[in-house]
Specification:
The chain is an all-alpha fold. It has a domain at 16-85. Helices cover 46% and strands 0% of the residues. The protein has helices at 23-35, 42-54, 56-63, 66-70, 101-113. Helix 1 (23-35) crosses helix 3 (56-63) and helix 2 (42-54) packs across helix 3. The longest helix has 13 residues, at 23-35. The radius of gyration is 19 Å and the shape is flat.
């Protein structure tokens, strides 16, 4: 493949399943992060505080920052990121939790199209 045919942009997909062992500690950490953000407008701060207090997944989403994952990687600059958290029923023995399953389906689609 020639250089002008390849994009400089790379999409990295990450899926994590975390077990929350201490909801109070997680919520407190998220509230500290919100309180320490000088750029957050007061109305947004009130909304964020309510959200992390009511939903542990929201608290986690306030603490996990995609920029932190790549900020020390040399030669790259984060262009766009989105993330969210949701409560899930997790069974590590279930085939539904095979994280490689989606990758294979996308690869098959790309090969069929190419």
């Amino acid at each position: 493949m020639e250089t002008e045919d390849t994009s400089r942009f790379v999409r990295v997909r990450v899926e994590l399943v975390l077990e929350v062992e201490d909801e109070a500690a997680l919520t407190a950490a998220a509230l500290r992060r919100i309180a320490g953000d000088p750029e957050m407008p007061p109305a947004e701060r009130v909304h964020a505080e309510r959200a992390v207090t009511e939903d542990t997944a929201e608290a986690l989403a306030h603490l996990v920052d995609p920029f932190d994952l790549v900020s020390e990687v040399p030669g790259v600059e984060l262009q766009q990121a989105s993330w969210s958290g949701e409560r899930v029923d997790y069974d590590p023995d279930s085939p539904d939790w095979d994280l490689d399953e989606d990758d294979g389906a996308e690869d098959d689609e790309e090969e069929a199209a190419g």
